[in-house]
């Protein structure tokens, strides 16, 4: 099947008449083509037997391609403008511009005026039109200057008058530009050196009004006075400030005309204010005032000041109110804020100090100084020995909270806290002993005072304090001494004991806790041995009036004890022999050495007021048992019958006759035991408790033990120094004195003086472990 395609022919009919606007200066030929009818496509048809047969259409329409020409010719005579067209058109435009300047109605329509401008530009009158408009606007702006030269106008009214003039000028230039928009978008746009109509208006206002010295000064002074009034708490017209400052910014004179004087006035204001308020107000009030001032200036930036002023303005306030007074603020009130735990004020101080240069550095230095001073007051005072560790824990917890909540966990403050604690906590050697006693007391109390979780947290806090201690070996020595004196104690929490050892081991290594672990192991084994011993006593005939408990101490783990010989009652000696046979039967080859100084007993005593149980030491026991056979004994008699050393005996008698629980009486009365004193059993003794613990007088012993413990620590340190020197020299073979000392400081975990190191080096040279170089006495060689 063939299909015919046709398209309507486009052409120029009689109804289309070219207007003057479409006249052309040269002849253009436009060919309008009509689509020819194409030959039809043959279709493929299928017959009934499935045989394809082609059928051609008998009609084939073929039309020749035709071409027609549309010719547009120029006017024979070029159109001419009416006479005086330029002047008449300008007069119409001028009248409209003057009406806009005077805010009166415009006689011509805006469309008509716009068309007039377009026609003048199309006939190459744009340069003259632009110049005439500029002159007309120039004259108008000049005429407005006189109103600002009168001295009788006050400042607020003057600013309003200036703002009214500026707003009117902007509105007028917007209206004028809308009329002359074609001029602005063609002629002005093609001349890059020529300002736009809007920019021309700004330039005229800047040159004739704001650049006038008198007008400019009065305007800026008025603005500054208005801002000063607002800073003094008065309500001002912020929209007026915003409009006039936007005017200065649009005129591109904001910086040199206003900002410089504004910042100078701001500097002077806050310099005077800062000096005055630092004397009148306390630190919290002053910080709140500074924060208030910063917020006020930020608000001014949001409402009317140009954003380009932000950095200089805020820096000015920070410098005058903070930067110049950092030291004064810290000296005047930082310690008080820390003592009173004023976290909100400290947070504000941190936030403000972080805004100024060196602010956080100064604050961190003040924080470190406070921690050292306050901490040193805790550890140096001997009267606080009993409460020192708890105070340190509370102090550390308080400081951690302040660093976290107030100082935003700043790394500088965390490091300053660590260094400060490490400084003051090592000011006194006795701190290690106090910490050891505190740990022991908490472990003995166990779950009686706290839950397992609370005890675990307490041990973690104690370990924090322990890390600050340089002489950790001193802590170990005193902790061992406490265990030695209190080895028969019953820990309230075995898990807590093991947890403490685990923490010490993790902190200092297995070598540090090996002996402590051995001591605790002895305690556990002793409990098992005593259970087996009691079962053994049931199978043999033995006195039933004594209940013996023995603690087996391995000599390598425990401190060395001086052997003491005392006169024991036969019953006790008998029990000792029974236990000795029992123990050696299970552990052959071992040697038992009894230590009377570590013994404790529980005695049943009868008084006229009733029976009591006395928990006393072995020396106190031997003394009291003598009064079973007599009522009165002299000091010399007691010494002869007990065999106790004189100093120890005097302390023992003092605890029994001069303490709180006076089960015997001294004749004559007095605090100290003197030669010739006699002692009488106090049958009238009364106490509300059934079991009474009579403590041995430990004052002198503690001082002596402390000295001996420290001496042993120093002796052990000498061995460690010697071992470290030999280890280093064996590796390096040859080393200078300076490098050797430097490596020793890195390896040794306790504080040591250069003089001590030099002594140990000399000692090793004398013992031929190392030698000096023959040519350089400052060099050492290892002797294999």
From TrEMBL:
Residues 22-40 have a biased composition (Basic and acidic residues). Residues 41-55 have a biased composition (Polar residues). It comes from the Eukaryota. InterPro entries: Cullin (IPR045093), Cullin-like_AB (IPR059120), Cullin_CS (IPR016157), Cullin_homology (IPR016158), Cullin_homology_sf (IPR036317), Cullin_N (IPR001373), Cullin_neddylation_domain (IPR019559), Cullin_repeat-like_dom_sf (IPR016159). Pfam families: Cullin (PF00888), Cullin_AB (PF26557), Cullin_Nedd8 (PF10557). Residues 1-11 have a biased composition (Basic residues). The keyword Ubl conjugation applies. Residues 1-62 are annotated as: Disordered. Keywords: Ubl conjugation. Residues 430-657 form the Cullin family profile domain. Belongs to the cullin family. PANTHER family: CULLIN. This is Cullin-4A-like. It comes from Priapulus caudatus (Priapulid worm).
């Amino acid at each position: 099947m063939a299909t015919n395609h046709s398209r309507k022919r486009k052409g120029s009919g009689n109804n289309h008449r070219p207007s003057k606007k479409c006249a052309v200066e040269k002849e253009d030929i436009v060919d309008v083509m009509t689509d020819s009818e194409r030959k039809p496509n043959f279709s493929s048809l299928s017959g009934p037997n499935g045989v394809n047969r082609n059928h051609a259409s008998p009609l084939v329409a073929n039309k020749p391609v035709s071409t027609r020409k549309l010719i547009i010719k120029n006017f024979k005579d070029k159109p001419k403008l009416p006479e005086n067209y330029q002047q008449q058109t300008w007069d119409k435009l001028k009248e409209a511009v003057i009406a806009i300047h005077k805010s009166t109605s415009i006689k011509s329509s805006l469309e008509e005026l716009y068309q007039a401008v377009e026609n003048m530009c199309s006939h190459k009158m744009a340069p003259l039109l632009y110049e005439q408009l500029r002159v007309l606007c120039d004259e108008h702006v000049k005429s407005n200057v006189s109103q600002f030269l009168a001295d009788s106008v006050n400042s607020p009214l003057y600013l309003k008058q200036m703002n009214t003039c500026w707003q009117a000028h902007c509105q007028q230039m917007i209206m004028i530009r809308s009329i002359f928009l074609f001029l602005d978008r063609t002629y002005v746009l093609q001349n890059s050196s020529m300002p736009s109509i809007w920019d021309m208006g700004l330039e005229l206002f800047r040159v004739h009004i704001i650049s006038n010295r008198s007008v400019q000064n009065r305007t800026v002074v008025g603005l500054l006075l208005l801002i000063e009034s607002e800073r003094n708490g008065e309500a001002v017209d912020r929209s007026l400030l915003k409009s006039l400052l936007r005017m200065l910014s649009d005129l591109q004179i904001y910086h040199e005309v206003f900002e410089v004087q504004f910042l100078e006035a701001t500097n002077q204001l806050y310099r005077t204010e800062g000096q005055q308020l630092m004397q009148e107000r306390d630190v919290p009030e002053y910080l709140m005032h500074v924060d208030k001032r910063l917020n006020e200036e930020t608000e001014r930036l949001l409402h009317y000041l140009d954003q380009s002023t932000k950095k200089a303005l805020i820096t000015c306030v920070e410098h005058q109110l903070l930067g110049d007074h950092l030291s004064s603020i810290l000296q005047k009130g930082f310690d008080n804020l820390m003592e009173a735990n004023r976290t909100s004020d400290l947070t504000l101080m941190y936030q403000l100090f972080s805004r100024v240069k060196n602010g956080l550095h100064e604050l961190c230095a003040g924080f470190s100084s406070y921690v050292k001073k306050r901490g040193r007051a805790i550890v140096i005072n001997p009267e606080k020995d009993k409460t020192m560790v708890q105070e340190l824990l509370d102090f550390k917890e308080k400081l951690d909270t302040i660093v976290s909540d107030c100082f935003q966990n700043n790394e500088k403050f965390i490091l300053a806290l660590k260094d400060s604690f490490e400084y003051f906590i090592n000011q006194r050697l006795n701190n290690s002993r106090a910490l050891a006693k505190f740990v022991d007391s908490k472990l003995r109390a166990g779950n009686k005072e706290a839950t397992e979780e609370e005890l675990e947290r307490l041990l973690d806090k104690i370990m924090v304090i322990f890390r600050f201690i340089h002489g950790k070996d001193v802590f170990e020595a005193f902790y061992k001494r406490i265990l030695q004196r209190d080895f028969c104690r019953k820990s309230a929490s075995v898990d807590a004991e093991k947890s403490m050892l685990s923490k010490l081991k993790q902190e200092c290594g297995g070598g540090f806790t090996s002996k402590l672990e051995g001591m605790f192991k002895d305690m556990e084994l002793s409990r098992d041995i005593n259970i087996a011993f009691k079962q053994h006593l049931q199978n043999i005939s033995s006195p039933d009036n004594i209940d013996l408990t023995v603690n087996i101490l391995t000599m390598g783990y425990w401190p060395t004890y001086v052997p003491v010989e005392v006169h024991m009652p036969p019953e006790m000696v008998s029990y000792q022999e029974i236990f000795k046979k029992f123990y050696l039967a299970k552990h052959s080859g071992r040697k038992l050495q009894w230590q009377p100084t570590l013994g404790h007993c529980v005695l049943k005593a009868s008084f006229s007021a009733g029976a009591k149980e006395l928990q006393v030491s072995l020396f106190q026991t031997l003394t009291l048992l003598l009064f079973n056979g007599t009522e009165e004994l002299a000091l010399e008699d007691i010494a002869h019958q007990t065999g106790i050393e004189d100093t120890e005996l005097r302390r023992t008698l003092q605890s029994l006759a001069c303490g709180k629980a006076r089960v015997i009486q001294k004749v004559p009365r007095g605090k100290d035991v003197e030669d010739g004193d006699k002692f009488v059993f106090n049958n009238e003794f009364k106490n509300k408790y059934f079991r009474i613990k009579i403590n041995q007088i430990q004052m002198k012993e503690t001082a002596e033990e402390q000295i001996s413990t420290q001496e042993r620590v120093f002796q052990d340190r000498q061995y460690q120094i010697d071992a470290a020197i030999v280890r280093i020299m064996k590796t390096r073979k040859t080393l200078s004195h300076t490098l050797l000392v430097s490596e020793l400081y890195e390896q040794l975990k306790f504080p040591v003086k250069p003089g001590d190191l030099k002594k140990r080096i000399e000692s090793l040279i004398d013992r031929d472990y190392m030698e000096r170089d023959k040519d350089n006495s400052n060099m050492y060689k290892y002797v294999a």
